[in-house]
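Quick entry between incubations.
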Amino acid sequence: MVPDLMTTPEESVPSSSATRWLFLGVCVALLVLLLGSGVLAVDALSKMHAQQQAITHVLAERSQMLSGLSFSIQSYNDAVRQFLVEAQAEPDRQHIERLTFEIDSDLKRYPVQRDSAEAVLFDGLRAVYLQQRTVYVSILERKPDERRRQAQNTIAEQIVPLQAKISDWSGKLRTWNADRLKSMDQSLVAEFNEAQRGLTRALQLGFVSGLLLVLAGMAYIVRLERQTRHRYTQLVESRHQLQQLSARLVDAQETERRSISRELHDEIGQALGALMVDLGRLSNSLGGDRPEVKAQLDNMKTVTGRTIESVRNIALLLRPSMLDDLGLVSALEWQGREVSRNSEVEVEVQSENVSDSLPDEYRICVYRLVQEALNNAVKHSGAKNAKVIVRQTPQSITVQISDDGKGFTPERTRGMGLLGMEERVKRLAGILKVEAKQGQGVTVKAELPLASG
Amino acid sequence: MVVDAESDLTVVGEAEDGRVAITLAEKLKPDVVVMDIGMPSLNGIEACRQIRETLPDTQIVMLSMHSDEGYVLRALKAGAKAYLLKDSAEADLATAIRAAVAGKSFFSPSVGKVLLEDYMRKLQRSGAEDSYDLLSPREREILQLVAEGKSSKDIANLLELSVYTVETHRARVMQKLNLKGIPELILYAVRKGIIA
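Done. Structure below.
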């Protein structure tokens, strides 16, 4: 029945620090993953944006240049035609030469790197231009009248086909522009898709690992909760056991005290009493003739008397017989007088309605409370007066012990005495209150509920 | 034992506990019962009360280890006439028995001493006046006679007063000394050394 306090199975304590670090690591990894994928996505987007801008820029430039070239060549052609039609001698030559110069510089400025379609366009335009140039040179070499004569012919045979070629090249150019734009769009879309896929993957990974983390965390919390509940139950149980144990200890102590007290009183006390009577008789019968024997016997009587006195005191301390013979109130009054006799504290005992047939555990509890409180008052407080008030109602019995000593600080001085009181009061489901303030005396108050009437 | 040594006293019976004492007393109807307070099964005080109830003419001499007023008062309330401490019983027992037969109180000298000491200490510490000083000489006289066990009628005859006057004096004594009942009055008298 005695609770086995020593061998409570020790549970394996999980290495909580390792688990904590693991959790922290996974959390950090997850965060890094999310942050990384975010950064990568932003980076990819900005790169794509820059790329698009660059491509658009280059494309626009080249298209513009090619268009310009095409336009220049057409203007050149128009100028040659006009020159022929109007048959002017000089003014337009300058204009044509300026055009020639522009076209030359355009051709020279055009970037060397070019893809096949672009190269075809470029070469085609240059070829047309070179043809025009040949035509122009041949025209210029002619004499003005010959030139005028052959004008219609030249226009019809050479200039018009050239114009057709130019418009043909212009069409090709437009198609090429559109194609490039389209292909660039496609590549951009592909790249964007790629980035989107990457981002989606990263998000999926993040989501899944986050979910795993949450699940693991939940599982861990549930486990901890279960452990905590288990521990709490254990704690409550062991506290209960401890309380039972201490109650049993108090009981055992009282029983033991009572039996020792009775033994002292009944056996040793009676024997000493008989010895005392015999000594007295011996002293009377022998002492008359021999004074030295009488003196010795009287001395023995005195010693025996003192021994009886101390045996009686010890027995009373262990278990006051008044508690059994006269009831609680008389025992308390006796104790009060006893304390008054042997100390500087004058004790007053008041009682109201206290029955002589209180159950023994209540009597002994109240008695020991008063004993302990008065003992404290005598030992520590320097009090001059102490007052004990016991009151019984149908529901409970209340005892209050107050002194006018110097008090104490209850938070600091909670010694064995108070603990013992608390144990006794708790055992009877009562409440113990100790009101103590430095310099204002101590009041110990206990209320013990009585079991039904 | 001690009693047998006295020529005018005879032991008619002995009992080992309170219950046996009551049965035996009812059968033998002795003049005096010498009763130990601390007895198994039924303590001396309760046995004393019961014997006094059924046999009002039987006087009780109480033997005790305790000189405390709690026991003395309780024994008196239960109807005991004499109260002896065990360590001095041998010397005083015969005297006490004779006093009890005569209807007088008797107390071991050390009982009176303890009671007086308690009383004086209380007075001294509380700084109160000794209420005995408040009594008139006549009242003191009557206090002593009452404590010795005399009835109002006896006292009236003795002092050549009317019973009514004696009762009045008696009531005033009780009031002045703040006493409730004859046992407390006797205790007071013992304490003050008015009776032994």
